[in-house]
Structure formats: C-alpha cells, structure tokens
Specification:
The protein is an all-alpha fold. The chain has one domain: ACP-like (Non-ribosomal Peptide Synthetase Peptidyl Carrier Protein, Chain A), CATH 1.10.1200.10. Helix content is 48%, strand content 0%. The radius of gyration is 12 Å and the shape is globular.
Length: 89
C-alpha cells in the first residue's frame, strides 16, 4: 500500500472516525483545518513510531513534519533513510 494511502486510512479510521475514508487533499492542514487536535497529533506520533519503526523526537513534531498527509509521508521517508519522492524529480 502506498504510504500516503496508508496514512489516509489511519487518519480516517482512528482520528476522524470516518466511514467514507479520507475525504481531503493530501496537502490539507490537519491542525489548521481542525481535523486533528493536540491529542490526535500525539496519537499520530505514536502510530508513526510503532508502524514504521522510527523514533520520533518530540522536537520533530512540527507543522513542517506532521501537518498534512504529504508532509508526514515525506518525514517518514526521510527518517527511514529513503528519498522523498519529490526530491527524485
């Protein structure tokens, strides 16, 4: 499963409790647009650590890394040592 799709599924099912999937753009701000609060960000951080086997430093939990599906996917790829798909263009 593509990383972005996996993140969408997690957010829809566990944060938004949506039966219709993730109905937003991958660039939608999770915090600014009110999709997630501080507790949700913590849950998301724990999900990232347990699912992708990476250690998230609390200082890395920033809007630049955790505020959209695309930003989070890029962060995960960087942490896992893979190239961000955007940097391959």
């Amino acid at each position: 499963m593509e990383l972005e799709s996996q993140l969408q599924q997690y957010l829809a099912e566990n944060i938004l409790f949506s039966e219709n999937g993730f109905e937003y753009s991958n660039d939608t701000s999770l915090v600014h647009d009110g999709l997630i609060d501080s507790t949700g960000v913590l849950e998301l951080m724990l999900y990232v650590e347990s699912t992708f086997g990476i250690k998230v430093d609390p200082l890395e939990v920033t809007p630049e890394n955790f505020d959209s599906v695309n930003k989070l996917a890029s962060y995960i790829r960087r942490k896992k040592g893979g190239l961000d798909s955007r940097s391959r263009r």
